[in-house]
From TrEMBL:
Entries under SUPFAM superfamilies matching the protein: Dimeric alpha+beta barrel
Organism: Gordonia rhizosphera NBRC 16068
Membrane-spanning segments: none
Pfam families: YCII
Annotated protein name in UniProt: YCII-related domain-containing protein
Stated family: Belongs to the YciI family.
Residue intervals of the YCII-related domain: 4-102
Amino acid sequence: MAHYMLSVIGDPSVYDIPPEEAQPMYEETGRFNDELKAEGAWVFAGGLGRPDAATTVDNTGSDVIVTDGPFAETKEFLGGFWVVEAADLDAVLKIAARASQACGAKIEIRTFDRA
């Protein structure tokens, strides 16, 4: 079984949704997480904080450069993720379709290379 990363692709406005309006999405995502665990597909998952609160570290040159904010200015960003275990691409496509419905966002699938 391979591991896949399912990235939640969102836009910054999602952080401005009032908690009472976001609660149904949180509940649906929680149910989806429980289903993944029951099916044995769950590896781990997490939501991410606001992209404008990110810090970028670049140590590729002669000095370490620390910058407030995200690496790139974009309209879409990585809002969270799941790492799941699935037999093949067809199986993970079905999981990703359910994930997209649960969280109300687009999902990007990538293989997860373990170190």
